[in-house]
Amino acid sequence: MNDNSQLFKGTLTTVVLKLLNDNKKMYGYEITRKVKELTNGNIQLTEGALYPALHKLEADGLIESSIELAGNRQRKYYHLTKTGKKEIKLKLADFSSFIADIQNILNLKPSL
């Protein structure tokens, strides 16, 4: 497994917003599972990294949470606010530009 944790740390907000944008609403463990699944286990998002990020996004007004009953237990679901939907579009454009710049600096050819 690659140790991408430092690289991933700087993209955590964008990743969480993108997952919520794509899935409408998710709970914390579901987010960690999805990251692991999408990266074939190369990136494992810990609760210690995720929940502070979720709380900051909520404090910043980019996401909201709601408690729902799932079976006989409560789950805290997160979803994007209108501001969050605007923010993810900006972050994805910025990130795409950043990746292109890094590829140029490192002379990496994108694999198509």
CATH homologous superfamily designation: Winged helix-like DNA-binding domain superfamily/Winged helix DNA-binding domain
Q: Termini separation (Å)?
A: 23 Å
Going by helix content, strand content and strand pairing, the class is alpha+beta
The percent range for strand residues is 15-25%
Contiguous helical run count = 5
Mean of residue pLDDT values: 89
Kindly identify the CATH topology. Arc Repressor Mutant, subunit A
Low-confidence segments, given as residue ranges, are none
What's the CATH C level? Answer: Mainly Alpha
CATH architecture: Orthogonal Bundle
- Count of DSSP strands: 3
- State the oligomer: single chain
Biggest pleated-sheet summary: 3 strands, antiparallel
What's the overall geometry? globular
User: Total domains, how many?
Assistant: 1
Helix and strand run: HHEHHEEH
Radius of gyration: 15 Å
Record the strand order, biggest sheet: 1-3-2
